[in-house]
Design goal:
Distance between the termini of chain A: 52 Å
Structural class of chain A: alpha+beta
Order of helices and strands of chain A: EEHEEEHHHH
CATH class of the largest domain in chain A: Alpha Beta
Strand order of the largest sheet of chain A: 2-1-5-3-4
Number of helices of chain B: 12
Shape of chain A: globular
Order of helices and strands of chain B: EHEHEEEHHHHHHEEHEEEEEEEHHH
Number of strands of chain B: 14
CATH architecture of the largest domain in chain B: 2-Layer Sandwich
Radius of gyration of chain B: 18 Å
Number of domains of chain B: 3
CATH class of the largest domain in chain B: Alpha Beta
Radius of gyration of chain A: 16 Å
Bound molecules: flavin-adenine dinucleotide, FE2/S2 (inorganic) cluster
Strand content of chain B: 15-25%
Number of helices of chain A: 5
CATH topology of the largest domain in chain A: Ubiquitin-like (UB roll)
Structural class of chain B: alpha+beta
Oligomer: heterodimer
Number of strands of chain A: 5
Helix content of chain A: 25-40%
Distance between the termini of chain B: 48 Å
Largest sheet of chain B: 5 strands, antiparallel
Chain lengths: 163, 265
């Protein structure tokens, strides 16, 4: 067993867990934060993406003990009260989801993508950066549009109108 | 995943001591291969000893014609290094082609080399640039280090500490990705080094990364894509699986070698 202390969405949590506990299991089963999803067992789908100290990581392929002491942000930590994060708002506006299963991972990855490209984003870059996030429903088109819009909002440029 | 015991090493000596104290321990880098394998129950180490918090395994240095990368440096750190991009953009591009952004945020160069997956990217750069792999016990040339599919010269308790790449006159990397896994179905690293041209192929060889000496000599007298696209390799030395036959991969080697040389300029 290991004692794991994390700051999750700004709140410090401490739990005694088995060493083999994956971060995603820690979040979902020990903290009840079920917004982070598990879509595969091969580390390929990205539904489990969260931020560890600001970096997008697949929480199904990290041990909770490995990130002891870190700061973790999940989809539950993005909104400011009732106000959606610009990325969440853009996914809603542009219909960037259908069943919604991939959405938490998509949004967490998308927020990091914007952060890593302060110079701005184009469609090709967005598509390349989404290689580790799989969506079975949307065909990606509206996801890409949502990220493009949110990037502009987050970087203070005029956003393109929703169609 | 079967039960395991997580241990965080604070120094190289501490890591070796912790590994040797475990019944069946394994070093842990970014976990992007090892944890994935443990989840499938294809590996079940009694302990994992985390190397990534050891300060001397971190960091990138560029000076006097060499690039030094600490073993626990992530693919994302290499891909985003302005210092490396200024002298060897083929290497930052290679690191940026590994998996996806989340994998690159965790996976490390040391873990990639220790694993020696026949479809991994870094072995091609190490082989083509004649990099030196430094470990807790000594150092290796690429030919000494890579000994077969998923096999290296490392002892169980031996830690890769850093990799030193001599900066070549020019270099290019061309990767044909498996669109599902994003690993290389075939990829060629071409470099003009102080010892002459070197061509290394990953993703395709049935014994892992390999050099193509016929292409290297052809480039010695004529550094151009045309010099290599006419050179063929035998399908007998190629991997063959559901993603591509040996003949297909052999054909890719010549095509990608041409593109890699062209990219190098
Ligand atoms: C979805 C996905 C896509 C991927 N795509 C690619 C790709 O396109 N190209 C590619 O090259 N790779 C790819 N990978 C693999 C990735 O690059 C891994 O990061 C890498 O193979 C292993 O590095 P790691 O640091 O995660 O090591 P770990 O998984 O922690 O360890 C791997 C092995 O190396 C050993 N080890 C780790 N560090 C050291 C050290 N310093 N000294 C000695 N032994 C050590 C461990 O004991 C273990 O046996 C992909 C992985 C995933 C999950
Ligand atoms: S659940 Fe983590 S990558 Fe699929
Ligand atoms: S919306 Fe259904 S998987 Fe993406």
């Amino acid at each position: 067993m290991s004692e794991v202390t994390l700051t999750v969405n700004g709140r410090e949590v401490k739990r005694d867990v088995e060493d083999r506990t994956l971060l995603v299991t820690f979040l979902r089963e020990h903290l009840g934060l079920t917004g982070t999803h598990v879509g595969c067992d091969t580390s390929q789908c990205g539904a489990c993406t969260v931020h560890i100290d600001g970096n997008a990581v697949k929480s199904c392929t990290v041990l909770a003990a490995q990130v002891d002491g870190s700061s973790v942000t999940t989809i539950e930590g993005l909104a400011d009260g009732d106000t959606l994060h610009p990325m969440q708002a853009a996914f809603r506006e542009h219909h960037g989801l259908q069943c919604g299963f991939c959405t938490p991972g998509m949004i967490m990855m998308a927020v990091e993508i914007v952060k890593r490209h302060p110079q701005g984003l184009d469609e090709k870059t967005i598509r390349k950066e989404l290689e580790g996030n799989i969506c079975r429903c949307t065909g990606y088109h509206n996801i890409v549009k949502a990220i493009d819009t949110a990037a502009k909002t987050m970087q203070g440029q005029p956003a393109m109108a929703a169609e | 995943m079967y039960a395991t015991n997580y241990q965080r090493a604070t120094s190289l000596d501490d890591a070796v001591a912790k590994l040797n104290a475990a019944e069946d321990g394994k070093f842990l880098g970014g976990g992007q291969t090892l944890l994935a394998t443990m989840k499938q129950r294809l590996a079940a180490p009694s302990a994992v000893v985390d190397l990534t918090k050891i300060p001397e395994l971190k960091g990138i240095g560029v000076d006097g014609g060499t690039i030094t990368i600490g073993a626990a440096t992530t693919h994302a750190a290499v891909a985003g290094s302005k210092e490396i991009a200024a002298v060897l953009p083929a290497l930052t591009g290679l690191a940026g082609s590994i998996g996806d952004p989340a994998v690159r945020n965790m996976g490390t160069i040391g873990g990639s080399l220790a694993n020696n997956d026949p479809a991994a990217d870094y072995p091609a750069a190490v082989m083509a640039l004649n990099a030196t792999i430094h470990t807790s016990k000594g150092s290796y040339s690429p030919e000494e280090f890579f000994t077969g599919l998923f096999e290296t010269a490392l002892d169980e308790d031996e830690i890769i500490t850093k990799v030193v790449f001599p900066v070549p006159q020019k270099a290019g990397y061309e990767k044909f990705r498996n669109p599902a896994s994003r690993y290389a179905l075939c990829a060629v690293f071409a470099a003009l080094t102080s010892d002459g041209p070197r061509i290394a192929v990953t993703g395709s060889g049935n014994e892992g990364v390999f050099r193509v000496s016929e292409m290297e000599s052809a480039l010695g007298s004529n550094w151009s894509a045309d010099a290599v696209t006419g050179v063929t390799v035998s399908p007998d030395q190629m991997l063959s699986d559901m993603h591509g036959s040996a003949e297909y991969r052999a054909s890719l080697v010549s095509v990608l070698a041409g593109r890699a040389v062209k990219k190098a300029g």
